[in-house]
Write a structure and sequence with these properties.
Helix content is 53%, strand content 0%. By secondary structure, it is mainly alpha-helical. It has a domain at 43-109. Helix 2 (43-67) packs antiparallel against helix 3 and helix 2 crosses helix 4 (92-109). The termini are far apart.
Amino acid sequence: MVNTDQRIMDMIRSPKAAPDAPPPDMDAGAPMAAPMATPEPKMGSKEAALVNLAMALDLIEQSLPAIGSESAEGKMAIAALRSLSGVLGAKKAATNELQQAEIMQLLGSLPQAGGASPEAKAMGAPPPPMPPSPESMPPAPLPGAPAP
């Protein structure tokens, strides 16, 4: 028993591991790096572009009665409508929802709609009131004088 205790104490003091012990696992508690991610397509940018195309389609549709569908410009506008409708296709309904949100966001950013930046609001606000000047203030009462 003494021999075993002595051997244990020697192992504790010695920086080397016992010859029959398995090597220590150095990576057991170390954090693992995540595997390299593959780049994903930026669908938000594409959806925003489709919303812009849908707005362009609506603007062309609104302009067509004033231009006239029989004029040269009207025929080109109709061709553009056909082309854009082919690009949007079945996504037209989905882009209409996003289009409404985009329009509300644009309207909210207009200064007259109250959506100006804090800096622009501060520039348009009246200046803060100035403190009264010492000449316009009544004199301070003297110490020990009766209160008025």
